[in-house]
Amino acid sequence: MKRTYKLIFFSLIALNLVSCDDFLEVPSYGTLTEDNLTGAAQIENEVISAYAAIGNDEINRPLSLWNYGNVRSDDAYKGGNDQNDGDFLHFLEISSPSIGNETWYTDVFWYRNYVAISRANFALSLLNKISEDEMSNKNVRIGEMRFLRGHMHFIQKIIFNKIPYVDETMSPEDISSLSNVAYTNDELWQKIADDFEYAYNNLPEEQDETGRANKYAAAAYLAKVYLYKAYRQDEMNNVVSVDQDDLQKVLDLTAYVMTSPYKLENDFAYNFLPGEYENGAESLFAVQYSQDDGTTYGRLNMGNALTTPTPGGDFNKPSQNLVNAFKTSNGLPMFDTFNDANYSESTDKVDPRLFHTVAIAGKPYKYTDINYEENQSRNPNMYGYFSSLKENVDPASDYYVKTGPWYANSKNNIIIRYADVLLMRAEALIEMGDYTAALPLINQVRTRAKVSTSLISFATNLDIQTYQDGVNCVWTQDFARQALRWERRLELAMEGSRFFDLVRWGIADEVMNAYYLGEATDHTYYQGAEFEKNKNEYVPVPIQQINYSKGSYKQNYGF
């Protein structure tokens, strides 16, 4: 159970957040002003408050992005009781035109994310006014706040696309007149990159307190931003080119991270366990959660509460398509035939990561002696029997907390981990034509997966092999690209990134429409589902925000 020896991620100063209606007119700085927050100690409190905001998610608006990154992709079904139970999630799942009508869900998500940005900006405005003589770590704290601001703008960008960029120099009047199209797509990505660039240049490689962003985390996140930026999109969301200069920056930054103490965990499972396993060798940056910290229930990971296999939860359920993707033939993925037949435990060989990612009926849940059972699925006829594992904890552990009708946990949420760094580097190499150099990076991830069996002794028919050019594959650029994209799906499955990968690669419509067609027989609610290219790549800008902006905001293409 985590206690308060960590950097505490709850607000030490009571902030009165303004209503959604007032966001554009009044920055959410709270009741305290710059005039009475001038000392280093007070500023440190505001820095902690900004850290708190990046974990201020809730049941329906998780910052882990399982709703936007998993359910919206081919990795997960919505789950829950039926289509009406969290109907907006149902609309996301089938790319329904109703996404544009049900804006209550996205409006509050948008608002909460800008509250987090405003906290970072408030801390920055204070930091800008204090001297280094008064606060010797001033530039480090500025780097941290720009890291957090970059993180929240990144989330907004990959979900909403057209967003206003807000910094600490803007007055309430400036904010009220902001446009969400003031920058081109590339310019907006560069603004986000600039925040991480400052963090990279000013943060130390090691921080005294666990949970603070460091130089390696900034480098990894900056590489991620440049990877997204590299895939140039036109106004209709089409990927029209892949920029080689941006890819080179990905290579430079990931090369630096690879000189760090960070590395792959010895076992894949260790990334998704609480307590002593948190902030481990692979976790470059994670949102910190806690208990016994002076709050009612603790600083809990509330955004994942609906994903527990409980009567009020059972959302974010792994799809049959995802489970089938773990099948192997001679140890390699079955790229073209994986979904021809559903996974059978008795006959199919599989990648070990299946049992770390998906709860299967009759198998131990989270490496315990207690099995996950079929009756824990609320509506198996509609959403199947699988359940999500990575973000959840052993229900018998101290990290599992009942909060009203739901159960949350105090396990950290990893934002970026070392395996992602290796795969980002491999992707950049492939797209630059140096696909041979990507081979050992992908194999490094697969080798770790192969040995990740110490906690899944119950698993049978495990078979995963590395790629060997000229032996079990012909490693061309096209094959390498396919292998990389498959590896990202398996390694990062159910971690909230799948849909955004598909959009970045420009293949979301192709993949999702094939998925809908394949699922329609067994899941009738997919019948008639269609991913509309040049529209469904992004969620519409909430109409409430357009109205509050008095017309300064423009809607995404297609809506």
Instruction: Please describe the biggest sheet, giving its number of strands, its sense, and whether it closes into a barrel.
Output: 3 strands, antiparallel
Indicate the proportion of strand residues.
5-15%
Q: Measured on Cα atoms, how large is the radius of gyration?
A: 23 Å
Spatial strand arrangement across the major sheet: 7-6-8
Number of strands: 13
Please describe what this structure looks like.
There is one protein chain. It is built from 18 helices and 13 strands. The protein is mainly α. A hairpin with a 5-residue loop joins strand 2 and strand 3. Helix 7 packs antiparallel against helix 8 and helix 14 packs parallel to helix 15. The N and C termini lie far apart (46 Å). It holds the Pfam family SusD-like_3. It comes from Plebeiibacterium sediminum. It is found in: Cell outer membrane. Keywords: Cell outer membrane, Membrane, Signal.
Features:
559 residues; disordered N terminus; two-stranded antiparallel sheet
Describe, in short, the structure shown.
The chain has 559 residues and is mainly alpha-helical. 38% of the residues lie in helices and 8% in strands. Belongs to the SusD family.
Topology:
Layout: H1 40-53, H2 66-71, E1 76-79, H3 87-93, H4 103-127, H5 138-160, H6 172-176, H7 185-202, H8 215-230, E2 231-233, E3 239-242, H9 244-257, E4 283-287, E5 315-318, H10 320-325, E6 327-329, E7 332-333, E8 349-350, H11 354-357, E9 358-359, H12 380-383, E10 387-388, E11 400-403, E12 406-409, E13 413-417, H13 418-431, H14 435-450, H15 477-491, H16 498-505, H17 508-519, H18 543-548
Antiparallel strand pairs: 1-5, 2-3, 4-13, 6-7, 6-8, 9-10, 11-12
Helix pairs in contact: 1-4, 1-5, 4-5, 5-7, 7-8, 8-9, 8-13, 9-13, 13-14, 13-15, 14-15
